[in-house]
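Q: Okay, next protein. This is Secreted protein from Streptomyces roseoviridis. I've checked the sequence twice, so it should be correct. Can you predict the 3D structure?
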Amino acid sequence: MPRLALYALAVCALAVVAAVVSFAQGSWLGVVWVLFAGLSSNMAWYYVKRGRTTS
């Protein structure tokens, strides 16, 4: 797995944790974290697929 894909997965996991904490505290800022988790998840998939085709 390419290094950038691992970084994107780590960011996705951290964003999910931040969203859970935000919602648990009653903050609607969690919506932004959910969107950020989706974006980083898509980036991870992109880098995984790109890594498979170039190798």
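A: Here is a summary of the prediction. Residues 30-54 form the longest helix (25 residues). The chain has one domain: 3-54.
Q: Noted. On to the next one.
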